[in-house]
Fold:
Amino acid sequence: MEALTNRLKPVDRRKMNFWERIYLPAVVKGLSITLKHFFKKKVTINYPEEVRPFSPVFRGLQILNRDEEGRENCTACGLCALACPAEAITMECAERKPGEEHLYREEKYAAKYEINMLRCIFCGLCEEACPKDAVYLSETFAPANYQRKGFIYGKKDLLIPDPKTDPEGFAKAKGSRIKHPQGHGNEH
Ligand code: SF4
Ligand code: SF4
Structure:
C-alpha cells in the first residue's frame, strides 16, 4: 500500500529481550524525561491570577463608547453592521427626545444594539467602519457561557461605564489602546 505521508513506521514484531521484558530501562527513561521538565521554565501561567501581556494589536470584546460627558456616541447609522462579514451586529434606531441630550450625543441613537459573539470573528471591521468612535474592540475576552443566548451581547453588556459616575471603570474599559475619547474610529 502506498504511504500518504513519510511518517509511516513498520510495527516492530521481533521478540523482546530480557531488559525489554522487565520494562525497567523504559520506566527509567520515562522518569528521566519527567525529571528534566522539573527544571525547565514553566510555560503555563496561573490564570486568572496571572495574565499574559496582550499583543498591541490584540482584538477582544467589543465596547460601545461614550464621550467624556457620558453620552453614547453611537448614532445607529448601521455602518458597522454593514461592514461586518459575519453579520453579527443588529440594531434598532431611535430618535433622541428633548431632554435626552445628556444621554445621547447625536439626534439618533441605538435603542437596541446587539452583537452575537458566536458569530463574531473579532476582525475589527466594525471598529474601522464606525465614523463616530462608537464601537471598538477592547483588551478583554468574551467570558465563557453554557448557553448560546449568553453570547448575545446587548447594550447593557457592551456600553462602557459612565465616566461621570464611574471614571475608574470608564478608563479601565477603554484600556491602553484607545487614546482618543472623541473623534473618529480610524484614529485608534
Ligand atoms: S457603532 Fe458606529 S458604525 Fe455602528 S451604528 Fe453606531 S455609529 Fe454607526
Ligand atoms: S469584529 Fe468583525 S465579525 Fe465581529 S462584530 Fe465586528 S465586524 Fe463583525
Residues 24-38 form the longest helix (15 residues). The two ends are 58 Å apart (CA to CA).
